[in-house]
Amino acid sequence: MSISFKYHHSVIVESLLKEFNERFLKNVEKQITIYEQMGVVSNIRELLPEPFKSKSKSHVQLFYYPPKKTVFYVISKSDVDQVVVKFTDKDIFSKMKLIEFKSGVPSVPVTFVNTSIRTDEIYVNFDYSLYMSYEHFIDIFDSVDQYSIDFVNSYVYSDRQINVDRNYSNQFLLVDYLTQVKNEMKTLVFNPSTPELDIDNFFERHPVVLEKTLNLIKPIHQSILKNINNCNPVDYKPDLIAYDQLRHQWKIVDYKRAKRSILKNVGQVRSGFKAEVNDLHNQLRDYVEYFDDRSQREYFKAQYGELIEYPASLGIIGHIQDNEKSTFHRTMRGYSNGFDIIPYNFIYDRFCKFIFQVENVQ
Question: What one-character DSSP code corresponds to residue 87?
Fold first, then answer.
C-alpha cells in the first residue's frame, strides 16, 4: 500500500470517526429531550451512562487499529470538550483479560460501561465505550439516527419497570421478560387467525414493542374520532395514534390480520399490492384527513390531551418474504411519504434485534 494511499485513507477514517461522534452525541441529546418533553421518562438522564447524565462536557477518544480494522469509541465525563482520534499500532484488547474475541475482532459491536483497560502499552479509563469492527462502524454510521434511539432505549428498558408489576432493573430479569414478549408476539403475528383486536391488546400491554420497533411513544389506543361537523360519513376509530420520535410527528396506525400475502405477481409484470392494502391506504387517508378540520383537532385535544396536526399513517399487515422484498420496496415508492406499510415479520425481527442489544450491554 503506497504512503499516499495510506495517508488519504487515514484522513477519510478520521473524518468519519469525528462525524460519527458529533452526530451520535447530538442525536442522543435530541432523543433525551423528546423523552423529557413528551413526559415519557422523567428521569431519563439518571438511567444513562455517566457522560449522558447531564449536558456536561466530555472527553472522547476514538482508536483505530489498522491491522485488524477495529474501532474503539471511548467517552468520559470531563471539564472540557475534547475529541481525539488515535491511529494505534497496539491491539488494545490483545493482552486484556476482560473479554476475548476470535481473531481479535468482535462479531458484533460490544458496549462497556464504567470500565478501565490496562495493558503494558496503554491505560484507558472510560464511562462508556463501543468496540467494533470497521465494517460494523460503517453500518452504524449510515444509520446513526436510529442507532442513537436504540442506544437510549436500551438503557431506559434496562432500568425501567415496563408496564408490569415486576421491576426489571436486573438485566437478566429484563431479558427474560423481553423474551416472553417475543414468544407471545411470535404466536400472535405468525397465526393467520389472530383477530386484529388481540394484536392491539398485545401492543397495549407491551408498549416496549411499539417504541423499540417503530419508534412510537405516547400511544393512544382505540380513540374515537367523532364526526363533529358531519363532514365524515361516520365516527372513526383508529387502532392507534402515537408519536413517532424519529420523524417528530404523530402517526395514525391501523392493524390488519398478520400472516397473509399482500403482494401479487411477484417477479412478474404488473406486480404490486393486493386490494386489501389499497383499502387500508384509503382507510388511513380518511383518518389523516379528519385532522384537517380545526374543530375536530380541538375536539381530539379536549378528549385525549394531544394536539394532532398533519399526522402520518402506518398500516401493519401481512408478511414479506426475502424473495418479495424488492417488489415490496418498489411498490411502496408509488405512495406518498406520509403513508407507510410494515409487515409483521419486520417488526418481529426488529424486536429480536433489540433483545440482542440489551443482552450485550456489558
Answer: E
